[in-house]
Amino acid sequence: MTSIENAGTYKLGHRTVSRLGYGAMQLAGPGVFGPPRDPAAARAVLREAVAHGVNHIDTSDFYGPHITNRIIREALHPYPDDLVIVTKVSARRGDDASWIPAMSPQELTEAVQDNLRNLRLDAIEVVNFRSMHDVHGPAEGSIEAQVTALAELQHKGLIRHIGVSNVTTAQVAQARAICEIVCVQNHYNLAHRQDDALIDQLAGDGISYVPFFPLGGFTPLQSSTLSSVARRLAATPMQVALAWLLARAPNILLIPGTSSVPHLRENLAAADLDLPADIMTELDGIAINTAPAPAAPPARRQPATRPRSGPPASCPSC
User: Which residues are annotated as catalytic?
Assistant: First the structure.
């Protein structure tokens, strides 16, 4: 059986978790909407992850909606003592599978209550506020009201710790001025490294950073470089991308997702992949001197974003 001990551990709130966790988004149906084609297989993935030592599962009640949390409950409740379940709030799903911002204090409270009910928990270990000022990525705008609302739920004992997601550095600072923030969850990988300075700052302060989309946003040239490295190491591109993230900073916690047991085992095997110094240098070069994509013409902000086929980089993921 694959061991993830080599991934190491890091603190998440007052708990210590393996740095190689699991993201449950893909357990829902296509487009992260509706039930999976094979619910038994979804439950098997969760049980396999825990059997391999995974004790950090990332989820949300808007996956499905409600579906993923119910699958987690069916597969793992009563939960192992060391299991940390992290959820996120700030969106709801339309009947057409659209992603609709839901950031009012009342909507956030209802979302926390939905998570508690569907996971069958009395309190959630960590709740991430996922900023929806722009569904496609971090955008400036105050998150004071939303973080304050979660802090009030924390005082009531419904939330133990608070994190933020899809946020700018300024928003992280704003949130930290309101309450303790135990993790930041943003899009970050070999090719998408806008958060380099933030990661280092958080590491210095003992705060976890949880990147999502480890292979999202690569150009064909960047993908070719990664694939070439993977072939030389007799590994998959995903394994190399995950191993690089583990080596990037000690406070990085990974939550790769899959609905397949074989793919889960492949992802977890990244814990045993050693990246020599010359390989690290080559991989670091993927993001160097990369011209940004041309800016798209301005478009009117839409109230919701509907995924075409599966979760795009714009969905409230993790």
Answer: 63
- Taking the C-alpha atoms of residue 46 and residue 34, their distance in angstroms, rounded to an integer, is 18
Q: What does the alpha-carbon distance between residue 160 and residue 148 come to, in Å, rounded to a whole number? A: 14
User: Whole-prediction pTM value?
Assistant: 0.91
Task: With a cut of 70, say whether residue 313 has pLDDT above it.
Answer: no
Give the dihedral sign, CA 123/198/209/223: positive
Query: Is 223 inside a domain boundary?
Result: no
Is residue 282 one of the residues assigned to a domain? no
Residue 70 resides in a domain: yes
- DSSP characters for 259-301? S-HHHHHHHHGGGG----HHHHHHHHGGGTTPPPPPPPPP-PP
Q: What residue has token string 């969905």?
A: 315
Task: State how many domains the chain has.
Answer: 1
Tell whether 152 is covered by a domain: yes
Distance between CA atoms of residues 311 and 99, nearest Å? 11
Q: Tens digits of per-residue pLDDT, 233-245?
A: 999 999 999 999 9
Q: Which residue range(s) make up the domain with 115? A: 9-215+252-257
Identify whether the C-beta of residue 248 lies closer than 8 Å to the C-beta of residue 211: no
